[in-house]
Amino acid sequence: MTRPGSRARRWQAGIVAGIAVVGVGVGLGVASADETVPTVSCPKVTIGVAVPAQQQADVQRNLALLDEQVAEANERLRTTAGQGGPNFVQNAILGPLRDKRFATINRIETAIGRNAPKPDLNAEGLSACTLRQAAGTAPPVRPTAAPTRTTPAAPTSPAKPTTAPTTAAPAKPTTTAPPASPAPRGTPVAINGRLRVCGTQLCNKNNKPVQLRGMSSHGLQFFPNCVNAGSLAALRNDWNADFIRLSMYVQEGGLETDPARFTAKVNGLVDQATKLGLYVIVDFHILTPGDPNVNLGLAKTFFQNVSAAHAAQDNVIYEIANEPNGVSWDGIKTYAEKVIPVIRRNKPDSVVIVGTRGFSSLGLSDGSDENEIVKDPVKFGNVMYTFHFYAASHREDRRAVVARAAKKLPLFVTEFGSQTFTGDGPNDFASTTAWLDLLKSLKIGYGMWSLSDGRESNSVFKQGTCAGTRFAGTGVLTESGRYIRSRILTGVGTP
Q1: Which residues of 185-223 are buried (b: 16+ CB within 10 A; e: fewer)?
Q2: Pick from 363, 427, 360: nearest CA to 391
Q3: Smallest Cα–Cα separation from 247: which of 282, 271, 209, 280?
Q4: pTM for this one?
Q5: Active site residues
Q6: Distance between CA 53 and CA 70 in Å, rounded?
């Protein structure tokens, strides 16, 4: 997921040769209140194909999101004027904006492609933005090139891996982890102990199938204060949750910008959750670019460090690629079979979760299904496969596939939402309940997106909550937060 904002939409519809065209005025000269501060200028995104009726709301929402992203970038330019070194604007504002725009345009293509031929909107060419300098300021910062993407229509040719960043790489930790302390009595880890995959199920220390229920964080760089000792204690004590998923974005201002700092942050949060007896899913959150092989070197370094630091613990699960997209299953499998040995050298019995094609849709978003995995699974034990859904966008047809796939593959829903796949918009609790009832019947674990206090409807905390110290009770929760807390706590979701 990317981080949307929530400003007013500015989209318009016209007719060109009898075909609906939707355009959005993105970065077309929004003036700054401070004439000495530059503003962002981005290429205009226009859709010259018919948008299916089922997808018009999602497409319009993503078009509006493009404007919101520019508005947020302009605000950051205003509030950080004069900060950082010569590359600050490029690295902290224009680079992340480029990645967000690429992902958003890609989502528009994917949405249209669910009910019509998938268009090529030229995400590569329209993602990079420049600065419109105010009078008397320095020349504009030259943007970096848009990220290279494998065309989804030809998923058998994944993008070639690039060399992972080597600057500011975290120091290699000792391979001997400190001895683990016993989990507090009555906590999820104390009750279930070391987990393993048995057949198509996740099983506890007594070889009994278990369903873990919990929450996913948003990007740790976007909401740095929302996962802390207080919110984790609320998950355990007030929600009766089993785990937290730590979403470590690789791009968009995440891990690649400061590997040492972000790796240390993940390790610290794992330690906090461990003290509370919670399980932790460490999520290597790739999204744009969608081919995980692009970040192979960084993934190996990251998982070497994290798995070494927590080798003595039984509560850490490793999710090695969040939502692969624009890449074949063979490309994902190749990546997995290079990363898993790195983890297993430190933790031989660890459970590893592997993302699936088409934004972890089991290939459904790319016109495939679970059979490509069944016929060619990852060649390691204790491996599960990811499925993600957003209840307002994904309904009965996908539930039927999950029910069928669960008979052949061990699945884990590491991320889902009660909204559309954009992570925003009205909550569809009827569809969400149908999904969670299915997962309960199949004993498939799930984590809701997201433990954050943003403006979008996927945030479970009200805005401003993460700046305080109170995280328990319904008073700090949004509608989606009240629903998922109730569902985990009582078995019935009540918003």
Answers
A1: eebbbeebeebbbeebbbbbeeeeebbbbbbbbbbbbbb
A2: 427
A3: 282
A4: 0.68
A5: 323, 415
A6: 27
